Amino acid sequence: MTRQTSSAPRGELVLTGGTIYAGPTEDAISNGVVVIRDGKIAAVGRQGSVPVPDGAETVDCSGLTVAAGFWNSHVHFMERKWADAANVPAPELAVQLDAMLTRYGFTSVFDTGSPWENTRRIRERIESGEVPGPRIRSTGDVSSARGGCRPKWF
After folding, report:
1. Which of 129, 28, 142 lies closest to 78 in space, CA to CA?
2. How far apart are CA 114 and CA 116, in angstroms?
3. pTM of the prediction?
């Protein structure tokens, strides 16, 4: 993969030449182009059918696969490392989120039960842009029987 940078307006990135899987029910696009503007996909298609912004940063993805972000539909933020999420330093929280989720392509997750206040704080820090991470949806507090398997830290 080669990356060319220029004096493009901040926030424009173009992925070129890869095989793109834009969705689970769509055919693969070979020799594709993805235009990303301000962190959002602005256009997808075959090279020649999608205009590439002049001066945009480009990444040659020839021989690579580009896929839509993944959902993880069953996560918990119950390990001790997630405790007091409002006060975990941003770089540390970002590393933890990357190790568990974003490095695997998860752009959205569904928390099926964790300490709600803590999960809410993680979500707020992501949504504010303070730390990179996936969209978090949650059922809220975990339910367990008295004496059940609740972590001791919450």
Report:
1. 142
2. 6
3. 0.68
